[in-house]
Amino acid sequence: MSKLFRTAFFFCALLILSSAQARAASISAGSIGPDCGSCQGASYYLEYLGPVADIYGADGNSNDTFQFKLTVDATNYNGPGVAIDAIAIKVSASVDKVTIASTNVGGTWVPTLGTLNQDGCATGPGSGWNCAEWSVVNTASPAVVPNHVWTWIFNVDVSSPLFVNTPGALSSIKVEYVNQAGQKVGDLVSEKVPEPATLALLGVGLSLAAIRRRRTQK
């Protein structure tokens, strides 16, 4: 085994081990931006923080509520908006209830089972989407942009498996930017968020492929 191969193999093993340790601790995070199709210079992070106390007892399952943290790093946001007015995450195909555990924005954010569209949070099941919207109509929220980092922590009671535990499934996020009058401007951010484990395995595959090419060329 060549020195190059041993070094690459050791590096790949560390990546896999790190990913496994993060998953074992029930914590994982995915990110996208600032250069994705609708990111507008901002970066978006979705973290799985693990199970929490049940928020929906009607389904008879007390172990199906999980916490997620959405972070919007709008430091380099370059769109036309002045604030974030609504955000949404999709971490499972179906959801029973959602609450907002905390946010560093302040004020009141109203959680809704439903997706986020051009008119804000839409009511209804929303195929697993969970939305939260600034409560004051026709006024921009305190989540001003750019040059700020904002976070929202969701408690989500699911009725189907989490995407973080489903091979090939990706969580999704949406973010709406508004003007001073609380009216949507610019793109509605709508992106899938790759899991770090997926990225680590992709890196392993690319590294091994590169090694094979080099060995073949010798």
Folded structure, characterized:
- The chain has 218 residues and is α+β, with helices and mostly antiparallel strands.
- The protein has one domain: Immunoglobulin-like, CATH 2.60.40.
- The protein has 2 helices and 12 strands; from the N terminus they run αββββββββββββα.
- Helix 1 packs antiparallel against helix 2.
Cα-atom Rg, whole angstroms? 20 Å
So how many helices?
2
Q: What is the SS-derived class?
A: alpha+beta
Low-pLDDT stretches are 7-26, 197-216
Shape: globular
Helix and strand pattern: HEEEEEEEEEEEEH
Q: What is the correct CATH architecture?
A: Sandwich
- Kindly state the percentage of residues in helix: 10-25%
Strand content: 35-45%
Report on the biggest sheet: 5 strands, antiparallel
Task: Return the domain count.
Answer: 1
Strand order of the largest sheet: 1-2-3-10-5
Any idea of the CATH class? Mainly Beta
What gap, in angstroms, lies between the N and C termini? 14 Å
What's this, in brief?
This protein is of the alpha+beta class and 218 residues long. The chain is built from two helices and twelve strands. The C terminus is likely disordered.
